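hey so i finally got around to running the thing on that chain from the lab meeting. sorry it took forever, my laptop kept dying and i had to restart like 3 times. anyway pasting the input first so we r on the same page abt which one it is
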Amino acid sequence: MDNGQWTIIFFITIPDSLNLAFQEYANFAELVVT
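ok and heres what got predicted. didnt touch it at all, straight out
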């Protein structure tokens, strides 16, 4: 398996709560950077 497939599997198997937390962090980081 190549890294691309691993990445896809990783993101598919992320729990919704962790995925939501990451999105919240990304939005916050975007505000800080801007």
